[in-house]
Every structure is written in structure tokens, then in C-alpha cells.
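Action item from last week, closing it out:
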Amino acid sequence: MSFAQVGGWIEVSESGAAFVLRIGGELDADSRGSIEPTVMAVIASGGSVIFDLGALTFCDSQGVSMFIAADEKARAEETTLVVRHIVPPVRRVFEITNLDNVLHMID
């Protein structure tokens, strides 16, 4: 399923036992409110969740806050959370905010 958003979007699919959340466009104050409920609902379903950020072109402090909240929710729900395909500008934001040391990131 796919949800169009103001500046960003999210697609949810399954890959084996994991849910894949593909987030694209811009993750900021305008799009967080539309994307985050889907993220939290999928994490609450348990199991394993993969964030695919290959199409995410921009992430500001609101996006960083959403990822922190997602990580906290995943820990509380005992859901495995992995982030992959992080483009260099978004990776830089993760590094500056130390989010790269909080989230489990793979290439």
C-alpha cells in the first residue's frame, strides 16, 4: 500500500517475515504527521521492520525525532528495526545528530 504525502511518502510491503517501510521525498514538519502514524502502526505489529530510505531526499529535525520515536517504540514492542539504503545527505544528518549510533544501519 502507498500513501501520498505533502513533501514525502511512505510505502509498506512485506519481505519474508519483515515489513519494509520505504520512505521517500522530504521528511519534515509537513510530512511527519502523515508518515509517522503508519510507521508506529507497523512497528506495533511486531516482528521485524526495515526502513528503506533510498528515496528519502531530505530529513530535518522532525524526521530525526520521528526515527528516535520509532526506535523507542520498537524497543518497547521488542520489534527488530533496521535502516538501509541511506543516501549521503540523510546519512550526514544522522551522523550530526548521532542517530547513526542509535539505529541499526546497513548498506
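Closing note: Residues 11 and 24 are 9 Å apart (CA to CA).
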